[in-house]
Amino acid sequence: MNAPTPPAAGWHAQIKLGFTRVGAATRLGERVHCGPLRVQKALYPEGEAVCQAILLHPPSGIAGGDQLHIAAHVGAAAHAQLTTPGAGKWYRSGGAQAAQILDFRLAAGSILEWLPQETIVFDGALSRMETRVELAADSRYLGWEILCLGRRAAGESFINGHLALHTRIERAGRPLWLERGQIAGGDALLGSAAGWSGASVCATLLATLPADVDVAALLAACRQCVPADGAEHGVSALPGLLVARYLGHHSEAARHWFIALWQLLRPALLGRPAVPPRIWAT
Q1: Is residue 112 part of a domain?
Q2: What is the pLDDT of residue 155?
Q3: 90 and which of 81, 116, 125, 160 could share a cystine (Cβ 3.0–4.6 Å)?
């Protein structure tokens, strides 16, 4: 698969979304974009309280030199859900690094769900992925990332290239989660038990834990749910945060496991039944 031809310096794209609470409804009150990032319209598949936005990247993949900045501000008491129409792809680079920055800010009493489909990093990609989530004292967040190194179905491994990862979630200025990673193509850690243990797919789900939730009961329920492919996995709780991890070879199994966890977590943590986005079924 060849990437579409970007400008010589790569695509530089930004999108800024602002969600506000108006009466009982959440509205997409701000939608500013530059370059190939779009949200076509606000969707309300479960009523006006939750505003769903499907993030589109028309070039269909990220090539060397591309710089994407995705920002969302969720206003007080608003509930926003962001997802994507298909897998994200990071193509082989001819030498320039590509980057994607997610910048999420949540005001008092707000909720944000970040539920993208999987991210495929091609062999030879030079990539940097950064996620920043700033929470108010009582806002809630549930998000995941499903990361695939190489295209295993095509016999491709991540032998060349580089991937830098940085995720930071903070509440009222204090960190809840801080993770940094540097993955070099062909690195021995990818095959080591101390690293990826030979796996090609690593996925992480992070959800904030309100003070009044029964954490032990929630963990017990989540641990009854397992990936269909029997891959390595785990669910644990840190102060204020639930973490689920998958390590295996099947992005579809990881995604279906996360959806099953989301169906348990959404009512317990966000106070709403789980209504899967229609785009997931297309």
Answers
A1: yes
A2: 82
A3: 125
